[in-house]
Amino acid sequence: MDLQLHLTDDTQLHAHGFVADHMLVAEVRWEHRIPGSPLGQGTLRGTPAMLRQLAALAVQAAIQAEEEDCWQAHQATTAASVEGRVA
Q: What dihedral angle (degrees, nearest 10) is formed by the CA atoms of 49, 54, 59, 65?
C-alpha cells in the first residue's frame, strides 16, 4: 500500500474506535482544505496496535523535524557570529 498524506495545521483530525465483526478497529479521519483545491478528506483504519505504532512513528518524525529546525537555526546563528567576528 502507498499512502501519501499532507497534513497542515488547518487539518481537522477525528479519532474513533469501535468493534466490527468481532474485531477492534481504530480509525482516524481527516478533513483539510488547501487553497484553490477541493476539500481533501480520508480515513485511515487499522488495529489499535498498528495505529499506536503509527502514532509513535509520527511523534518520532515530529521530534526529529523540530530538532532539525533547531539545529539549522543554531548553525545559522553560529555562522553569523563567526562572520561578524571576522569582518
A: 160
Give the DSSP letter string of 7-67: --TT-EEEEEEEEETTEEEEEEEEEE--TTSPPEEEEEEE-HHHHHHHHHHHHHHHHHHHH
pTM listed for this prediction: 0.71
Coil, helix or strand for 76? helix
Pairing state between β 12-20 and 23-32:
antiparallel
Grid cell digits, residue 5: 498524506
Is 4 within the bounds of a domain? no
Residue 30 maps to a domain? yes
pLDDT in tens, 37-53: 666 788 999 999 999 99
Identify whether 82 is part of a domain: yes
Give the dihedral sign, CA 51/55/28/3.
negative
